[in-house]
Amino acid sequence: MNMENITPDPSMQVMGALSVLSALLEQETGQQISPMRTGRIEAALKPLMRDRRIASLDDLATVIVTGADRELETLAVEAMLNQETSFFRDAAVMDQAIDVLLTLMADAGERRLRVWCAGCSTGQEPYSLAILLSERLANSDKPFPDIIATDVSACALNRARQGRYSSFEIQRGMPVRRMVSWFDTEGESWVARPELRKRIRYLHCNLVADMPPAGPFDLILCRNVLFYFALPIRRRIFEMIAGNMRPEALLLLGAGETVIGQTQRLQPSPRFRGFYSLMANA
Amino acid sequence: MKSCLVVDDSKVIRKVARHILETMNFEVREAGDGREALDSCLASPPDVVLLDWNMPVMSGMDFLRALGDSGVTQRPKVVFCTTENGMAHIRAAIEAGADEYVMKPFDRETLESKLQIVGIA
Ligand SMILES: C[S@@+](CC[C@H](N)C(=O)[O-])C[C@H]1O[C@@H](n2cnc3c(N)ncnc32)[C@H](O)[C@@H]1O
Ligand SMILES: [Mg+2]
């Protein structure tokens, strides 16, 4: 084994375990841990520590600092990510997103639109989109938009692909009629029907490190993802997103998120309230 | 203030639901079976009924049908809240006119979410 790898970096040694872990999270994903959430980090890492028989946060941080266990690092990062989501989150906004898509579709003729759901967590957001679209396009002969959903978390993506939810998860935001129309029961779980699952393609993409999925896109959702990025990183991601938009494309952020003051490439859409579009001649 | 009638033969469930609903600023009434619930609705309809399925005297389903036949002026929203979590039961409840469905065990978030969906919370 390379000695360099097992000698803890002295600058890290003086940091507390929490700082080591949050530095790891930021380095891998760009996510900063808000002071409010530091308290939850230990709870979030408990199951992993139990699995690996690691007694304390200090011990976990020590293993991570040595860089000897990349898999553990990845699992720790995944555990620390905030993956909170729900079906039809901000329901009125989701409906607007569908209105936007239908308008763009009317303009696009026969061309199949492309939607990118960046930071899709365990799939609730893309499934909600696909359900709304299926309902609105039930009697239409227009091509159904491609939906690409990405996340940095391999665990979240696996769950999203399976489309399997506990009764608590399925009920958060999901009207009962849609639940029985689009999901089947398997024991205690609710599983997205194949005709719903086939509407979405899930890909791994770390917004701070990877190439984005091949664009350009007509609509990009990046909701409740950028909130904890440091400003320079957020700026870079906005550039990348802007570079992946068609000229008339729209971007939707989470409630309380904005592009204003953070990028020269994007502006509030003059056409669709609450959405962002490319800055003209930028 | 919105009002909710909690209908369940379990005192514990009624207490839990009442607690959650009161922190959501609901005025809460209780009934131990469908018959009591129907009387309560006829006397003064709440905004929403949280309805158990299995109860003595009158079941949740029988209550729902009776409510439909009762000519109650302002029909409350009806949210089933039951351990009958199978597809067949849920479909039957929808067919009988239930507006929403909460599967037990439930938590605050589920209840909040479902009340929002029916437009009450
Ligand atoms: C709070 S969830 C939001 C999920 C969904 N968009 C919504 O609004 O309900 C944030 C998601 O962003 C993902 N994420 C965080 N940093 C990321 C990064 N650098 N690249 C890609 N995804 C990231 C997390 O794994 C998580 O699933
Ligand atoms: Mg009962």
UniProtKB/TrEMBL annotation, chain B:
Phosphoprotein among keywords: yes
Keyword field contains Transmembrane: no
Modified-residue entries (4-aspartylphosphate), positions: 52
CDD domains associated with the record: REC_hyHK_CKI1_RcsC-like
Keywords: Phosphoprotein
Example of a GO biological process term: phosphorelay signal transduction system
Source species: Stakelama sediminis
Short name of any one Pfam family annotated for the protein: Response_reg
Domain Response regulatory, chain residue ranges per copy: 3-119
Residues passing through the membrane, by range: none
InterPro entries cross-referenced by the UniProt entry: CheY-like_superfamily (IPR011006), Sig_transdc_resp-reg_receiver (IPR001789), ST_Response_Regulator (IPR052048)
Protein name: Two-component system chemotaxis response regulator CheY
